[in-house]
Amino acid sequence: MTQFSVNILGCGSASPSSRHQPSCQVVDFRGNLFMIDCGEGAQSQMNRFHLKGNRLAHIFLSHLHGDHVLGLPGLLSTLDLNQKNGSVTIHTFPEGIKILRQITDFFCEYSSFDIIYEPVSHNGGRVFENNALTIDAFPLDHSKPCVGYLFREKEKMRHLNGEMAEFFNIPISQRAAIRAGADFVTPDGQVIDNRRLTFDPDPAVSYAYCSDTRFMPSLAQRLRGVDTIYHEATYDDTKADKAKMRGHSTAGEAAAVARDACAKRLILGHFSKSYHDENIHLQQAKAVFPGEVIIANEGMKIDLL
Ligand SMILES: [Zn+2]
Fold first, then answer.
1. Cα separation of 19 and 272, whole Å?
2. Which long-range contacts (CB under 8 A, 24 or more apart) does 124-129 make?
3. Does the chain have fewer CB atoms within 10 Å around its N or its C terminus?
4. 142 Cα to the center of ligand 1, angstroms
5. 80 and 26 share a domain?
6. H or E element, residue 160
7. CA of 219 to the centre of ligand 1 (A)
8. Measured in angstroms, how far is the CA atom of residue 295 from the centroid of ligand 1?
9. Domain containing residue 184
C-alpha cells in the first residue's frame, strides 16, 4: 500500500467544463483519507477512483466559493446511505460552519456517523496533528478569504542495524527506544552509541495545496523545502492581468513559487475551461521551474514519497 499519495478528483476552475471537475482531491496518508475541497461531483469521483468513504475522516475546505464546497451535501448524504461509521470532521471558516451546519442538520439529521465542525482561522494555523502527521493552514490571496494546507510528515524513526542488534543482543523491549535515538547500555554497563546501532531514517515528506490565489511571492518563503506543491494555474502567462483581477495565478507564477521554495515537484491545477489542453501551462511552468512539473488530471494518483 502506498504510504503517502494524493488523488486528483477535480482540477477544473469554477465554470463547468466537459474536461475537468471542480476542485477536489484526496490525500491518502497510511490508509487514512483526507479530502481537500469538495467540489460538485466529489462523491461520484470517490466512487470512480475506488476511494472508500469509511476511510475518510477529515475534509478541509480552502474557501467558500461554490466550486470548492458544493459537493459536500451529496457526499455526506451518500456516506450516510452507505452506513459509514465513526465521524467526519469538516474544517472551514466560522462563517462556513454557520451555513454548512444548517444544510447538514437538515439533510443528515439521523446520520450514521458524527459530523463535526472545526473552525479554521483566516490567518491559518494548525488544523490537525497525530503521531505521524501535521496539517497547517496558511493564508492565500483570493477574492474571498482563502487558505492553503500544508501536510508534513513528522520525523520518522531511525532504522535498526539488525547485525548490531544481534551482536549486542538488544532485547525487543528496548528496540523502539533505540530507533527513537537512545543509546544502549550492556548488562556490564558499557554504553553503545546510538549511531553504531542505527541508520538514518527515511526523510519526512511534505505536500502543500495552494488554491485559489493570486501570485504570492511570499508563499515561497512559507513553503521553503516542501517536496511537492500543488498550485493553481487557472490561466497561462498571456492572461496575467486577468488572473490578477480575478484572484488567480498563471502557470509561470505558480512555477516561480515552486522554484523559489526549492520544491522538487509542482502539480498544476484549477484550469480555466477556456483551454482545450494544458500544454501551454506545462511549457510555461517548465521554463521557470527546474523540477518536475505535473499537469493534474482527474483520476491521477501521485505518490508523494
Ligand atoms: Zn475561488
1. 10
2. 127/60, 127/91, 128/34, 128/58, 128/91
3. N
4. 7
5. yes
6. strand 159-160
7. 18
8. 19
9. 159-199
Report, as residue numbers or ranges, the catalytic residues: 67
Choose one of 172, 199, 226: the last residue of a domain: 199
Do 79 and 217 belong together in one domain? yes
Sign for the pseudo-dihedral over CA of 32, 38, 44, 49: negative
**What domain count does the chain have?**
2
Per-10-residue mean pLDDT of the chain, 305 residues long, equals 87 89 97 97 96 96 97 96 95 97 92 96 98 97 97 94 93 93 93 94 95 96 97 97 96 98 98 95 98 98 93
Residue 60 CA to ligand 1 center (angstroms) comes to 14
Tell me: do 79 and 185 sit in the same domain: no
pTM beyond 0.70, yes or no? yes
Indicate whether 136 and 178 sit together in one domain: no
Q: Tell me, what's the pLDDT at 2?
A: 55
What's the CA-to-centroid distance between 218 and ligand 1, angstroms? 20
C-alpha cell at 125: 494555523
C-alpha cell at 36: 481537500
CATH at residue 209: 3.60.15.10
User: What pLDDT is recorded for position 241?
Assistant: 96
Same domain, 104 and 78: yes
Angle, CA 46 vertex, CA 132 and CA 3 arms, to 5°: 25
Q: What are the phi and psi torsion angles at 14 (to 5°)?
A: -65, -45
The residues pairing with 188 across neighbouring beta strands, listed in sequence order, are none
Answer yes or no: are the C-beta atoms of 124 and 135 closer than 8 Å.
no
**Number of alpha carbons in the 13 Å side-chain half-sphere of residue 257:** 30
Separation of CA 257 and ligand 1 centre (Å): 19
Distances (CA, A) of 213 to 1, 182, 222, 256: 33, 45, 15, 14
